[in-house]
Amino acid sequence: MRAALLGLLLALPATAAPADGQQLFAHNCAACHMPDGAGIPGAFPALAGNAFVTGDPAAAAATVLNGRGGMPSFRDGLTDEEVAAVLSYVRAHFGNTAAAVPAETVAATRTGKAAEPARPMPAH
After folding, report:
1. How far apart (Å, rounded) are the C-alpha atoms in residues 73 and 118?
2. Are residues 47 and 90 in contact, defined by beta-carbon separation less than 8 angstroms?
3. Which of 116, 27, 19, 14 is nearest to 65 (CA)?
4. Could you give all domains of the chain from N- to C-terminal order, each with its CATH number?
5. Is residue 123 predicted with pLDDT exceeding 60?
């Protein structure tokens, strides 16, 4: 009976641990935005109390995915789940109180055209 149960457990697909937003922030963001989210004035914006960070989650996701100013793109370096985890961490720390960002929001931003500037309609 025990052998059958062990065999059943071993046959189940392994599930990856959820992404750790704090660890991802420390590894990818803290060098510029500082471990406390205070940023470096004139160089890297503070994430603490930042209305952009706590505003539209798709806009924040587009910034992480595509980069902005001196910020690199994390499009090829982080999965949707990892981007969602780091954004959720930042939005809930450093005095911020915004809702978590679901990975689906990041996926839609990654595949959509949300980060591209709108093109004017041609005149007729």
Report:
1. 20
2. yes
3. 116
4. 17-34+45-111 (1.10.760.10)
5. no
